[in-house]
């Protein structure tokens, strides 16, 4: 994963957003690998169909 962001002001909000992103990725990437999810965009994964509903409890535990 590589990210480029320009934050010349050193915003605490940007730092917090990166920390939240890293925390989410720590759970999301292994989940995708375990379930062979190719398109790892959460928006796409949860947006197309409701096939993930049986896994809802497992996803909540990760959060």
From TrEMBL:
Subcellular location: Endomembrane system
A GO term from the CC aspect: membrane
Domain of life per record: Eukaryota
Binding residue positions for UDP-alpha-D-glucose: 8
Gene Ontology terms describing biological process: cell wall organization; cellulose biosynthetic process
Keyword Mitochondrion attached: no
Pfam families assigned: Cellulose_synt
Ion transport is among the record's keywords: no
Record key words, sorted: Cell wall biogenesis/degradation, Glycosyltransferase, Membrane, Transferase, Transmembrane, Transmembrane helix
Molecular function GO labels: cellulose synthase (UDP-forming) activity
InterPro entries listed in its UniProt record: Cellulose_synth
This protein's name: Cellulose synthase-like protein G3
